[in-house]
Amino acid sequence: QVRVVESGGGLVQPGGSLTLSCVASGPIFRIHTMGWYRQAPGKERDFLASITGGGLAKYRDSVKGRFTIARVDAENTAYLHMNNLKLEDTAIYYCRISLNPQDDDAYWGQGTQVTVSS
Length: 118
Known about the structure:
The chain is mostly beta strands and 118 residues long. The chain contains no helices and eleven strands.
């Protein structure tokens, strides 16, 4: 079965940087879209960024210019490079992969905690 695993979370000071990784494994022919979401305590899960196999990237307005999404198709891996982290970036970060353009065959990872604190 398809498995999605995030890593790279941790504790970072405000203004610091962190890179998250997402690796998908299992019976995957091709990943159409890889995306990152986050959920802060007591809040809904929010979209952050996504990237298609063609390299089309989209971002949530509040992270534009600070976060960069990238993917390595040969490794079924996506990255989220995060710079100038703020206290409000504290959340559990989730990776989501979609295997087709219809987005009806998608899988989530278990999440990785990012804590921004001085």
